[in-house]
Amino acid sequence: MGFFRKNPVFYSMLFVLLAACFTGLWYLARLSSTLGELKASYETKSSQYDRYVSAKPSPTRSNLEAIDANYDELYEVYEKALGILKLNTFDERNFYGETPASRADWSFELHRYKENARYAALSNSIVLPESSEFGVRNFSGGAPPAAEMESVHQQIVIMSSLLDTLFDSGIASFETIQRGVKPQKGKPSSALRAPDNRLYGEGDYFVVEPGQSLAVPGTLDSYLFRVVFRGQSVALRTFLNRVSNSPLPFVVRGVEADLSSERGQKQGLEAISENPFSGRESNPRSVATAVPIISDNTSLFAVTIEFLQLAVEIEEPRIASTGKGGADA
């Protein structure tokens, strides 16, 4: 032990380092054992997953043919629905045309739309309001906001078609055409609602009530319009029939009516309910002659019409499917 007495500090440090080294080797041996267990567990789980994946059935030829046949059947139902709603009976691109971009283009479109509507009405001897904007007032900046240009242009084209049909239906006078707006959260819409004693409100817009539209977000879009006019019931019937028989996807969503006049005079209405032979008048024949029992009434009509648009495109089934391809061969 003489060497330890000569250098005690050095040999003490040496023994400590040797002890630490042996302790580290023992700990590494334990970690190696744990690592081996984890590796064995991983290999077991990996083999189980591979067996599960390999055991999963892959689609067979008959399954693929059944899927194609089912898709063909569903697509036929889809096309029938499009035909019923008239969503595939016209070319949207040709119907709408190009959307105006500049202020000059918008000025020309608005002027053309209003003048054509005014000319069609006056050509059929239809009375117009003194200042009729036909549902679209002039924009403050000369054109609608960029985000609304396409929708406003499409609504103008649709309203032009509606007014052409209306003015050729034998109505007496035109009141207004309004565009429907859906109420948004946080924005008041009471100003757009019609008063309780009237069929329609003022302005170019009306509020679309819940359940009034057939639109389905992401699938089916639509524009709603309210056409207000005066005329006899035969004019209303003619207009509704022409709208229903149109190749365009129009859907009549509501019809409201209010008795407007009796041969143009409101006071004649009360005399209809009176019996001209009751003896209260000295000359009952004159009363019966002045106000006939069956007369030509002019009513105020408010018709709500929806124009449908498909918002989703569904891919056509492949013509050369496995089943049909073998049959064609």
* Tally of domains: 2
Cα distance, first to last residue? Answer: 103 Å
Compressed to H and E, one letter per element, the order equals HHHHHHEEEHEHHEH
Main sheet record: 5 strands, mixed
| Computed Rg | 40 Å
Q: What fraction strand?
A: 15-25%
Task: Report the CATH topology name of the largest domain.
Answer: Alpha-Beta Plaits
Identify the CATH architecture of the largest domain: 2-Layer Sandwich
Percent in helix: 40-55%
Categorize the overall geometry: elongated
Main sheet strand line-up: 2-1-3-5-4
**Total number of beta strands:** 5
CATH superfamily caption of the largest domain? Ribosomal protein S6/Translation elongation factor EF1B
Low-confidence stretches: 262-282, 284-289, 320-329
Name of the CATH class of the largest domain: Alpha Beta
Q: What is the mean pLDDT?
A: 79
The secondary structure category is: alpha+beta
